[in-house]
Amino acid sequence: MAQGAVIGIIGGQGWMGRSLGIALLEQNVVSPERLVVSSRTGGGEAYRDWPEVRCVKNNRELAALADVIVLSVRPQDLASVDIEAHDKLVVSLLAMASCQEIASRVGSRRVVRAMPNAAAEIRRAYFPWYASPEVTEADRRLVQALLQSCGTARELPKESDLDYLTALSGAGPAYPALLAQSMLEHARQRGIADEIAREAVMQTLVGGSLLLERLGTDPGDMVERLISYDGTTAAGLRTMIDGGFDEVVHRGLDAAHRAASGSR
Fold first, then answer.
1. What domain count does the chain have?
2. Which of 31, 125, 200, 226 is buried most deeply by CB count within 10 Å?
3. DSSP string across 125-184
4. Contact predicate 175/253, CB 8 Å
5. Alpha-carbon span 264 to 262, nearest angstrom
6. Cα 92-95-100 angle, rounded to 5 deg
7. Of the candidates 59, 256, 72, 248, which has an alpha carbon nearest to the alpha carbon of residue 171?
8. Do 43 and 64 share a structural domain?
9. Domain span at residue 164?
10. Same domain, 121 and 11
C-alpha cells in the first residue's frame, strides 16, 4: 500500500490516468477509498468495479482531498489546471513542462516529472522520472511504488535526461509501429496476403523484442552475430545499414528531443 496516502489523479478518466489508477487498484498499491480522480465529465465508468473510488469534476476539490496529486493531462491543458497544491507532492506526467513550470502553476516545489508510454495499459511501460530537490526520500519511495505499478520505473539523476527519454521511450509503440508499417507495406507489394503479412510482421517484431529482452545483451551483439552468418538476414542488414538506417533514426530522435526540451 502507498503508505496510507490519498492519491488524486487529475485526468483520471483519460488514457494514462485511467491506466495508472486501475493498475494501482489491481495491484493493491492504493485502496479504492484512497483514490480520487477528476475528469471533465466526472463520471466514474472506468472505476465501476471499485465504487469506493471518489470521482469529481472539480480539480480544486481533488487537490483538497489528496495528499499526492498526479497531473495526467495534455501539455496544452496545463494552463487550465487551476489548483493550489499547498506544497503537496505533485507528480506530472506531462511532456514539455519542466519542474519549474509545474511548480509555478500548482503552488508546490515538491514536483516529480515522469514520462509514461502507451505500454502502461498492459503494465509494460518504461517510466523514467526525475524529482526536484525539495522531494523527500519518503516521497521518492512513494513515487517509485506508484509508477512501477505500470511497468518499470527508474529515477533519473538529471532533468535533462527526462527530456531525452521523452523522445526515446516516451514514444511507446510509435517507432516499432513505423518499422512494422514499412515491413508490412513491403510484404503487400510482394503479393503476400494481408492477414499473413500482418501476422508475420507482428510475430517477428514482438518475438524478436521478447528474445532480446530475455537475452539481456547489447542489441549490437545480435546484429553482429547475424551479419557474421552471412545469410539472407545479413544481406538485409548490410543494405539497411549502408543506406543510412542509423542516420535516419538519429535524426528522428534528435527532432523529437528538440521538441521535448523546447528552449531549455
1. 2
2. 125
3. EEEEEEE-TT--HHHHHHHHHHHGGGEEEEE-S-HHHHHHHHHHGGGTTHHHHHHHHHHH
4. no
5. 6
6. 60
7. 256
8. yes
9. 7-170
10. yes
For the entire predicted model, the pTM comes to 0.91
The owner of cell 508510454 is 117
- Span 193-239, pLDDT tens digits: 999 999 999 999 999 999 999 999 999 999 999 999 999 999 999 99
User: How many contiguous H segments (helices) and E segments (strands) does the chain have?
Assistant: 10, 8
Question: Is 2 a member of any domain?
Answer: no
- The C-alpha cell at 229 is 552468418
Domain holding 14: CATH number? 3.40.50.720
C-alpha cell at 128: 523514467
Domain contains 20: yes
Question: For the segment 66-109, what is each residue's pLDDT rounded down to a tens digit?
Answer: 999 999 999 999 999 999 999 999 999 999 999 999 999 999 99
Residue where a domain terminates, one of 149, 170, 191: 170
Farthest CA pair distance, the chain: 64
HSE, CB side, 13 Å, CA atoms: give it for residue 44. Answer: 17
